[in-house]
Amino acid sequence: MDSTYAHILDGKALAQRIQAQISEEVAQLLSTFGRPPGLAVLMVGDNPASAAYVRGKERACAKAGIASFGHHFPENTSQTELEQTIEALNQDERVDGILVQLPLPDHLNAVSLLHQINPDKDVDGLHPVSLGRLVRGESGLRSCTPAGVMRLLREYQIEVKGKQAVVVGRSILVGKPMSLMLLEADATVTIAHSRTENLKELTRSADILIAAIGRTQFITADMVKPQSVVIDVGINRVSDSSGQSRLVGDVHFDTVREIAQSITPVPGGVGAMTVAMLLHNTVLSYKRSQS
Ligand SMILES: Nc1nc2c(c(=O)[nH]1)N[C@@H](CN(C=O)c1ccc(C(=O)N[C@@H](CCC(=O)O)C(=O)O)cc1)CN2
């Protein structure tokens, strides 16, 4: 590796290692308790990106020996039908985890559906009870993407305690839980967003910068503190001049890697960790139901 470039935090390789460990654990749990952990995924419509993520989750479950129960609904499905399905899954003893793939079509109320999931099966960590446990620092199911970031930082032995962390983005899926998890790990946390004034001043103060703003290559080298850790949560599909499409993050990787100490790539960084953490949460929920 050229020493002037940042160290690459390889989420894909780490996710594969975690998933291999989960497979071994699932085999043991199956022989002890006589059934595998189960994950139900609800998907509405045929958004191609969501369909690809759901397929990825189902493939990962199959590889780990986790039973997956796919519920794929047409675009015009009603709120009531989804509520009834969630209620049935809440009662289903084969199902340890339930998730609603986001985003949902506009006519559906995602928040109300997420509230209906039994918090003990909330493997996406998006139910108010799960988020409340996070706020209080109690153990519980943590949202997958920020949990994946924390695991990456831990595995690469990146010190979080006492560091200045700036999270750019305030979504319920990433920005808010990410900030709370960093706080839980004793970082000094600032949340920035699209309305933040003097954003560059803030991001340049970050020892750990989390980009989760949903804007293609928004974080440029002049916004980054030299020798900092840059975590890119963005996933944006772009087309080049020849019409070829590829994924890029919220960070301008080619320039930022010249000044950061460590950086996650896109693809191959945080995204892969999301699925590994989902499997982790499903197994955690299963083990709790057996004890
Ligand atoms: N209910 C949920 N909906 C959504 C979530 C979520 O955590 N829960 N997150 C995203 C999408 N997502 C999982 O659902 C997800 C995103 C990215 C990846 C991933 O593996 N990315 C790879 C690239 C994959 C590719 O080539 O397309 C990477 O970054 O390396 C997995 C899952 C929104 N919805």
From TrEMBL:
EC nos: 1.5.1.5, 3.5.4.9
GO cellular component, as recorded: cytosol
Residue numbers binding NADP(+): G169, R170, S171, I235
Sequence ranges assigned to domain Tetrahydrofolate dehydrogenase/cyclohydrolase catalytic in this UniProt record: 9-124
Residues of the Tetrahydrofolate dehydrogenase/cyclohydrolase NAD(P)-binding domain: 143-289
InterPro entries: Aminoacid_DH-like_N_sf, NAD(P)-bd_dom_sf, THF_DH/CycHdrlase, THF_DH/CycHdrlase_cat_dom, THF_DH/CycHdrlase_NAD-bd_dom
One GO term (biological process): L-histidine biosynthetic process
A molecular function (GO) term: methylenetetrahydrofolate dehydrogenase (NADP+) activity
Catalysed transformations (reactions): (6R)-5,10-methylene-5,6,7,8-tetrahydrofolate + NADP(+) = (6R)-5,10-methenyltetrahydrofolate + NADPH; (6R)-5,10-methenyltetrahydrofolate + H2O = (6R)-10-formyltetrahydrofolate + H(+)
Pfam families in the record: THF_DHG_CYH, THF_DHG_CYH_C
UniProt keywords, alphabetically: Amino-acid biosynthesis, Histidine biosynthesis, Hydrolase, Methionine biosynthesis, Multifunctional enzyme, NADP, One-carbon metabolism, Oxidoreductase, Purine biosynthesis
Pathway: One-carbon metabolism; tetrahydrofolate interconversion
Matches recorded under PANTHER family: C-1-TETRAHYDROFOLATE SYNTHASE, CYTOPLASMIC, C-1-TETRAHYDROFOLATE SYNTHASE, CYTOPLASMIC-RELATED
Complex formation: Homodimer.
Family note: Belongs to the tetrahydrofolate dehydrogenase/cyclohydrolase family.
Function description: Catalyzes the oxidation of 5,10-methylenetetrahydrofolate to 5,10-methenyltetrahydrofolate and then the hydrolysis of 5,10-methenyltetrahydrofolate to 10-formyltetrahydrofolate.
Name of the protein this chain belongs to: Bifunctional protein FolD
